[in-house]
Amino acid sequence: MAKSLTAGELRVEDQDTLVQKLKEAKEELFNLRFQAATGQLESHGRLRAVRREIARIYTVMRERELGIVTVVEKESSDG
């Protein structure tokens, strides 16, 4: 994941996309932890950012599960 995702951006995504983004973020976190363990990590701040992205994704998924927030439709630019 190249950039940080906001909760608002995540709320407009469907469940499958959220699951995919969660998988990608977990893979990145694993790689960052591996780099940190071997002394190759250059950006320690990225570890924190990825953990927060994972937490945001889990939060949005849980909100939907509890019915707190429903899926928000993306705005169409039909004019």
TrEMBL record:
<dbReference type="InterPro" id="IPR018254">
    <property type="entry name" value="Ribosomal_uL29_CS"/>
</dbReference>
<dbReference type="InterPro" id="IPR001854">
    <property type="entry name" value="Ribosomal_uL29"/>
</dbReference>
<dbReference type="InterPro" id="IPR050063">
    <property type="entry name" value="Ribosomal_protein_uL29"/>
</dbReference>
<protein>
    <recommendedName>
        <fullName>Large ribosomal subunit protein uL29</fullName>
    </recommendedName>
</protein>
<dbReference type="InterPro" id="IPR036049">
    <property type="entry name" value="Ribosomal_uL29_sf"/>
</dbReference>
<keyword id="KW-0687">Ribonucleoprotein</keyword>
<keyword id="KW-0689">Ribosomal protein</keyword>
<comment type="similarity">
    <text>Belongs to the universal ribosomal protein uL29 family.</text>
</comment>
<dbReference type="Pfam" id="PF00831">
    <property type="entry name" value="Ribosomal_L29"/>
</dbReference>
<dbReference type="GO" id="GO:0005840">
    <property type="term" value="C:ribosome"/>
</dbReference>
